[in-house]
Amino acid sequence: MASFSNFGNDLYTGARSVRIVGRQRLWYTISALLILISVVGPIMRGGFNFGIEFSGGSEFVVSNVASGANQAIATSTVETVVPSVVPKVSLLGGTSIRIQTAQLTDIQTRDIRNLLATNYNVPTEDVTASFIGATWGADITAQALRGLVVFLILAALVMTIYFRTWKMSVAALVALLHDLVITAGIYGISGFEVTPGAVIGLLTILGYSLYDTVVVFDKVRENTMGSGRDLSKTFGQQVNLAVNQTLVRSINTSVVAALPVASILFIGAVILGAGTLRDISLALLIGIIVGTYSTIFLATPLYAQLRSNEPAIRKYDKKVLANQAKAVESVSV
Amino acid sequence: MSKSSPVNKAWKSLAWLLVLVAGLVAVNGAGVMFGGGSWTPKLALDLEGGTQIVLAPQLESGQSVTAEQLVQAVSIIRQRVDAAGVSESEISTQGANNIVVSIPGQPDDATLARIQASAKLEFRPVLVTSAPSSATIGADGVSTPAPTADPSLSTIPAISPSNASDLNYITPALEAQFIAFDCATESTAATNVAPADLPLITCDNTNTAKFLLGPVEVSGSDISDATSSLVTTQTGASTGQWAVNIVFNDAGTSTFAGVTSRLFGMTGAQNQFAIVLDGKVISAPSTNAVITDGRPQITGGFTQDSAKVLADQLKYGALPIGFQVQSSDTISATLGSTQLANGILAGVIGLILVVVYSLLQYRMLGLVTVFSLAVAAVITYLLVTILSWREGYRLSLAGVAGLIVAIGITADSFIVYFERVRDELRDGRGLESAVEAGWKRALRTIIASDTVNFLAAVTLFILAIGNVRGFALTLGLTTIVDLIVVMLFTHPVMQILAQTKFFGGGNKWSGLDPTALGAVYRGRARFQAPAAAKGTKAAGSAKEASKRQTIAERKAETLTSEKDTQISAKGNR
């Protein structure tokens, strides 16, 4: 790990520097490609795979079934009671079987429940029946979207006041939208069901993405405003140094944030099967990675670009560049 | 800078932290001893197992529910559920429209029916009654169903009705509808919702008769109490007959007096008034007296049980609006505990990974992260437990996920802080002052970023519904805990550690070794030769040179040399 801390030292002093600001075209192209994949990917798969919470329907869970129990029993059971329904059967946590169908009547539900208990040889209490109205998931999402819009407005205001420039807010929000689109897209491509859990994961991403951007932007603010700035550097160079100086922190933070989420995803996907944990953690894991990426490679260069055309900055940059050129001359003499 | 002052401050901060934790423990302890609290947080249905029913109001078009109505509905449904003997049920509003009923285990059909039956209760005068079927049996003995009502029939009364019992309400269209009405199909036709000021066609709850009722005269919310009792004679002897006693509030009393004085003089069906619950007639007593004191008694054919049921319905049935089940979700206790166990397992694995990574990255400094996380975990656990006792918060799977995610965000504060301290070390400060200077800058960043996070949590908590709220709550909670821990634990501990030989001396394993960090400041007033001097062999641009310089060098240069000609850009504005 010593090499990693050397890497950190070099990034800090500028001995080694990743040129992030100034290669906007490359980063924008990558992001545009990612977004394109995120939009086209789910469409190619036939749209998002909405869970029962969004489409509405009935759900049965048979617990404590013998391991390796035959899932076909579930299908035939449902078809015995309601021939017209095509059930979706999946394994849940090793010892449970989940059966999802279109919405059934109370009587059909009771019949299927009893028959499932008989066929799987478990007590009736181990078979649970649920039904979800089609508007339920949509209601949650509609409320969440309202929350999202209000949050974005508030966050933009807070950032504008804190950083004293609205351009940082714009850059941060663009990065945030980028994260949301890509997270949703990759989630869609994975083929996991879109459940309220996934929506929650997506909402957390907006908090995390902005959080990450604020940490880096605070360093940018330090390096470009007030007494902390290095007057031998152009504005873009100052911003670039800031993002490099926080690179180690960005890597460490994203690893530390991703590790627990990855372990939830692993446990959720491998042991539990479909469910809230798996859905939340997949959305989160994608979001953390994309969020860290976008802070460094989208928000920061975008911010530098937004500011670079301001007359004051242009004037300052021109002067600095002239001085740098002069310095080159004086060295070569 | 006085040498002992940061350390004194540090011990003071730690003392405050201790007071805070002790206070939380005491509060929760008091809760356990006196107030029904517990040392473990209550679990939500998805972890504990149980049934969650989401009810949505069944509104006439153009209507909307107010928050007060919803709260009233919740309290009434709660009474109903409690009356059904279901313990530990939880009923709450969700969002602007929904009511969530959470019941441990799987409720029996009777309980479910009871919750679902919750609906508005209203008193309407009876206009016409008849047999439940729509068919007529002709002279040939064959039953013919009545034709469906012709839509062209007039729906406006020819003579405007003078009171609620006025038969002028029965327009030709209504009459045809009534004749065509069949109790057997009534539930699917969903006709049992009608505006309060218009007549209603419905059946009784056993489908033995159908009714054509006048507009609502007294609504259920005017009932202040209803009981069942044995009828006593004037001397106090019991007649052995069960009765239901209603007590109206003031408004109900005067309206009901008016209704009974009108109905008392009428004959046949019109002498009856119907008590309609959820669009079904639960009782249609005839009026034997004018009731002016607002305390009518219903008698006739009641058993003890049926009298109690009607009284309960009257008492609790005064819901302002009808509700329908929007979703009913049952999770078995087995599945819930599997989810919880695996969620905790995932958390533990994640935590171990974080600890290992921290130690690799920050050596012994990583231990500070580990202990800070431990302190954060203790405070969060206590807060969640107290919240679940005081505010009825229940930890759901989404909440657990929120807590696990919080590990990352909390650890980030420490990372930001450590990196700032390292930056200061790189600039050549001694550890003590690096800790103070790094802290000042890190705190700004931490507060700014935590503000954004907290904002997200609060917004979601206020605006979102369901699982999202539980998630937002843990997110907001951990953000605050993060601030508390980094201020009252991590920083003070760093201040104290900076005094130790191990850390202050920059031991190789401390994670704060200035040499490893490439610091240019070695001991007092001894600067390394400027990097620029040794590294300009090739093209040697000034840009490169300045890049290789550290801030400390630059500062040193500005302090010590005015004759530096190499970096002429400096101070040249």
UniProtKB/TrEMBL annotation, chain A:
Key words of the record: Cell membrane, Membrane, Protein transport, Translocation, Transmembrane, Transmembrane helix, Transport
Organism this protein belongs to: Alpinimonas psychrophila
Protein name, entry field: Protein-export membrane protein SecF
Family matches, as Pfam families: Sec_GG, SecD_SecF_C
Keyword set includes Repeat: no
Keyword Amino-acid biosynthesis: no
Lineage top rank: taxon: Bacteria
Record field: transmembrane: 26-44, 144-163, 170-192, 198-217, 255-274, 280-304
The gene coding this protein: secF
UniProtKB/TrEMBL annotation, chain B:
Protein name: Protein translocase subunit SecD
Localization (cell): Cell membrane
Keyword Transport: yes
Region entry Disordered, spans: 532-573
Membrane topology: Multi-pass membrane protein
An example Gene Ontology CC term for this record: plasma membrane
Coarse class of the protein's main subcellular location: membrane
PANTHER family tied to this protein: PROTEIN TRANSLOCASE SUBUNIT SECD (PTHR30081:SF1), PROTEIN-EXPORT MEMBRANE PROTEIN SEC (PTHR30081)
The entry's keywords: Cell membrane, Membrane, Protein transport, Translocation, Transmembrane, Transmembrane helix, Transport
Molecular function, one GO term: protein-transporting ATPase activity
Sequence ranges assigned to domain SecDF P1 head subdomain in this UniProt record: 208-321
Basic and acidic residues: bias regions: 544-565
Annotated Protein export membrane protein SecD/SecF C-terminal domain residues: 323-497
Low complexity bias locations: 532-543
Primary role: Part of the Sec protein translocase complex. Interacts with the SecYEG preprotein conducting channel. SecDF uses the proton motive force (PMF) to complete protein translocation after the ATP-dependent function of SecA.
A Pfam family recorded for this sequence: SecD_1st
Organism: Alpinimonas psychrophila
